[in-house]
Amino acid sequence: MAWRHKNRWLRRWLTVITFWFVPVLIIAVNEVRVEMAYNKADLQKSLSSWEMTDAQREAGAVARCHGTPDEARAAGCPEDVLAATEIKHQEAQNEYAHRKATLADYLWHAFVGYWIVPAATLLVLGMLIGGIRRALRRPQRTPAASPASPPTEVKTTSHP
Q: Is residue 150 part of a domain?
């Protein structure tokens, strides 16, 4: 029944890397959740801040310029304040997109470093150990009889 335990190490390897994936995934999801919450809060803070001069503040633009640009436009925010702040808002959205890309890149490297590399290392190690065990399990071959010496013949006498 040699087939019964065939590739046992491969099944064990699959079990180990499957269970190893769970903590890696938990850590990655938690990291994404925390980092994206911070990035979204920072984006909202940047989008809700308005750059105004002293003259614009005295003219009462502070009361009308708040929230998103659409809300400010509906509240009667002057166009010069909207135009000046639009550049800052675009920079904040570009920074948010850059942070998301950086986070995705970080997570890919973490996935490779904490799951792919250990899984590949265990696979190679298991294959190496399996190969060594198989080589040690096979019987040693004895050298064949040399053809230079002919076999001796045995004479037998027959009885009538």
A: no
Instruction: Count the domains in the chain.
Output: 1
Q: What is the DSSP string of 61-89?
A: HHHH--SSHHHHHHHT--HHHHHHHHHHH
What is the maximal distance between C-alpha atoms in the chain? Answer: 142
pLDDT, tens only, 11-49? 888 898 999 899 989 998 999 999 999 999 998 888 887
Residues 10, 126 contacting (CB under 8 angstroms): yes
Q: Is the pTM of this model over 0.70?
A: no
- In a domain, residue 16? The reply is yes
Range of the domain at 102: 9-135
Q: What is the DSSP string of 129-155?
A: HHHHHHHHHSPPPPPPPPTTSPPPP--
